[in-house]
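Thread: Newbie trying to understand structure tokens

Hi all, I'm a second-year student working on a class project, and my supervisor (Dr. K.) asked me to get a predicted structure for one chain before our next meeting. I've only ever worked with sequences, so writing a 3D structure as a token string is new to me. If someone could post the tokens and maybe explain what I'm looking at, I'd be very grateful. Here's the chain:
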Amino acid sequence: MNRFLVVLVLALTLAAAPAFAWNGVGHMTVAWSAYQQLTPVEKARVAALLKLNPYYQQWLKDIPAGASDADRDLYVFMFAATWPDQIKAMGSGYFGTDTPPKNELPTLNTGYSDKNMHRYWHFIDTAFSSDGTPLPPVPQPTIVEKIAAFRPALAGSEPDLLKSYDLVWLEHLVGDAHQPLHCSTRVAKAQPKGDQGGNLVVLNDPSKELHAYWDGLLGEGDTRTQLKVAVAAGQALPKADAALAKDADEGDWAKESSKLAESNAYIAPIGPGLGPFTPTAAYAAQAKEIAQQRVALAGARLATLLKEALSCGSQTCAH
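---
Reply by user tm_fold:
Sure, no problem. This is what the structure looks like when written as tokens:
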């Protein structure tokens, strides 16, 4: 098989693969960072809501033996940030593809009775091109619209069961919106519909492709180790930029990520086409620095979003 066919086969294989934004460790690190900024009353409120998630008992089983009550609540909050990816697993009872069904309203919010994985809620394919190829329209609905739908619902008068659903999605999607390759797709004459946020860009690296490479920049871990890895990653985060952290517009978050993808993900040694490319030490160092900044910012913005939505005083929460 010649080189072109090898790349083509790899590209087709990766096109069918699920698109994640941050791996489990990355999402848990966002959650860890946000949780540090919540008050005891806010922590108690999110703990009560997360008990309503259908995976709650499984999360308890995955918590290290001997964990304190406080650590248990923290770890559940961290696991909850991965739930929208957990339901993508084979045999989960959930269904769906990366393509949204026709006529789905961006305001759709029916709760845990909805068994669609809604994989297309996790990203926004903001296209850019360096060779003048016309840009395709952005498929709808996007991550921006879903965050905009869930945050007022969490702050409203809906029943707690729906708020629980909105909470886990917000934990996850706020993290997704800060992963540069989940807010962009590179368009070229050879890929007029885009490279699926780097999923089609092949790397000579254990990650195998560009999107997964950026997903794993905070670290790797399995069910037994990812909590520990995520806590360590959280403790190593830089302080979020205070001015940027005040920006509560989810559309701005996605635009920031899109610009970073174009200016920092698709740079040498990542060249035109689908590769394969080999990341250098300099590329890796810069990418990790950006990932840490984005995760810290996601944690700060998630904490602010939750504080505003839950509207907690010193004794109780309004929502």
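A couple of things are worth pointing out once you decode it. Confidence is low (pLDDT under 50) at residues 1-20. The chain has one domain: 21-310. Feel free to ask follow-ups in this thread.
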